[in-house]
Design goal:
- The chain is 35% helix and 18% strand.
- It is an alpha+beta fold.
- It has one domain (38-218).
- Strands 1, 2, 3, 4 and 5 form a 5-stranded antiparallel beta sheet that branches.
- The N and C termini lie far apart (98 Å).
Length: 249
Amino acid sequence: MAQHMGWQSFHRRWQSGGFSLIEVLASVIIVAIAMAALAPALTLVAYRRAMSERVEVASQLAQAEIDRIRTLVDLEVAPNPSAFQDPFLQAQLLASLPAIGADPLENTSPPADMDNDGGDYSIRLAQVQLPGRNPEEYVIQSFRNAGADCISRRDNTVIAGVPCTFLMGVRVYHRFSFDQGSRQALPGLRTETVSANQNLANADVWLYPMAGSIVEINLAADLGDVCRGILAVTADPTGNCDAFPLPNP
């Protein structure tokens, strides 16, 4: 009943000439206070969403880098009966593999700047355009161990110094992990991947890579390659793999 009377009073007030200036100003102030209270929460939600998108982009870049190196190894050593090539005899292809990092790979240092390889790692840059946002730049750091020597698919001989199997590490940093002017890494740049343990709203989130992984890269082998690879390690005669013939020269 009281609610009904309140609505009648509001209706009469509206018909009799509206609200006073003081009432309107009071309403505006109340709305402004409510919006001011909500603004930080809305801003934090938008920021976390943007950071989640960056983590997703970085993860995709890390996987793309791993796939690029895996494909490079497979293409270079794949058997071609008409024009067989031993692996990585082309210097530019061998040079395109990541630099050899520290042992263990987890100890490989973070990049010192955006542009130069650090001796024990390689650097690539990627620019990503997301809908409704300006392009963002990412720094892809890759490194590997020495790996195992390749075994030629042609004559089953070891090709010393040319790896077909190795561990590879990759870290992806955002552009904001580096000084805007000098492009040098921010002091205290870390190697542990950002995770839920770090508050994405903290300023030091840029001291961590957005994504990272260490995987094993292997030549895409058939059963014959597996057999010959095992026998090469054990120094057994290769005749035991005759059931899996080598490709023709």
